[in-house]
Design goal:
The chain has 298 residues and is an alpha/beta fold. The protein contains 14 helices and nine strands. The longest helix is centred in the middle third of the chain and has 29 residues. The structure holds nicotinamide-adenine-dinucleotide.
Length: 298
């Protein structure tokens, strides 16, 4: 099967590499040249536009920042819709607004092109390992056709419902991750100020009820003051904005998500939008006037 891949950033590049390793032939495109060159070196062919990529593929994967980027790449000038063959399938793996997924689906359906939304969780390390969690929205028959391809990049692939359901699930995921990071930050700042080494706190609680994948991934980073992304605060702001829009559109109050969104906004104002979302701890550090580090306060 020929696969097109549009968007070779932190996530898309290793995901595309895993498809190459699995033996698929790949046509790739990104607005930035460097990752395209890297993929060509690994065995892919360079496309000249999303349209070009689509014209050479039966299945087209997009992995782009947000709804407007996906709309441009799929529906815009020289977009996927101009090149895709009848019966081909678009798999959007970006995390975007569920409403945007449905709009893309409708536009593509008019041209006889199928689409599913299939956002992922797991971050760069799992994108590299090929163990992402994929949450899918779309028709069962289309899901059945693409599941094998998705499983080459994933540890789990779950069909959550109709088109848009993948992104609703991803919003739920992002709310839980954001709130976990905020809770970890608040607790580590308290432990440090109360005179206990936060690394000892982490080691003592990680196997108990408070332990989590988020804690295991982020605590070692923040205890060293390492905020290199990973997942940038600006992308988490994007996801929380999509969560708030969806919440307000469906009449769902989300008070904790609203609060953490404001903490993230404060980080952005502080010039830290490009840092890893674990860097949210700096918001709490500033409030308390300390730094959280291994060993605690010296
Ligand atoms: P990124 O910014 O590193 O990569 C996005 C890529 O898209 C860039 O290479 C950019 O040049 C390219 N691009 C933008 N507009 C384009 C266009 N019109 N045509 C072609 N290429 C275009 O972002 P990322 O971290 O790889 O994230 C991608 C998506 O995956 C986002 O929706 C994000 O929320 C989601 N996600 C990210 C992570 C993570 O840890 N980074 C984890 C899970 C999900």
């Amino acid at each position: 099967m020929n696969i097109g891949f549009v968007g070779l950033g932190i996530m898309g590049k290793p995901m595309a590499k895993n498809l190459l390793k699995a033996g698929y032939s790949l046509v790739v495109y990104d607005v930035v040249a460097a990752p395209v060159a890297e993929l060509v070196k690994a065995g892919a062919t360079a496309g000249t536009s999303p349209k070009d990529v689509a014209s050479k593929s039966e299945l087209i994967i997009t992995m782009l920042p947000n709804s407007p980027h996906v709309k441009t790449a799929v529906l815009g000038e020289n977009g996927v819709i101009e090149g895709a063959k009848l019966g081909s399938i678009v798999v959007d793996m970006s995390s975007i607004a569920p409403l945007a997924s449905r709009e893309l689906y409708e536009a593509l359906a008019k041209k006889g092109i199928e689409m599913i939304d299939a956002p992922v969780s797991g971050g760069e390390p799992k994108a590299i390992d090929g163990t992402l969690s994929v949450m899918v929205g779309g028709k069962q028959a289309v899901f059945d056709k693409v599941k094998d391809v998705l499983s080459k990049m994933a540890g789990s692939v779950v069909l959550c419902g109709d088109i848009g359901a993948g992104n609703v699930t991803k919003l739920a995921n992002q709310m839980i991750v954001a709130l976990n990071i905020a809770a970890m930050s608040e607790a580590f700042v308290l432990a440090t100020k109360a005179g206990v080494d936060p690394e000892k706190v982490f080691n003592a609680i990680k196997g108990g009820l408070a332990g989590s994948t988020v804690l295991n991934a982020k605590a070692p980073m923040v205890l060293e003051g390492n905020y290199k992304p990973g997942f940038r605060i600006e992308l988490h702001i994007k996801d929380l904005q999509n969560a708030l829009d969806t919440a307000h559109g469906t009449g769902t109050p989300v008070p904790l998500t609203s609060a953490v969104m404001e903490f993230m906004q404060a980080m952005k104002v502080d010039g830290k939008a490009g840092e890893d979302h674990g860097g949210l701890i700096q918001f709490y550090e500033k409030l308390a006037g300390i730094k959280v580090r291994k060993g605690g306060l010296k």
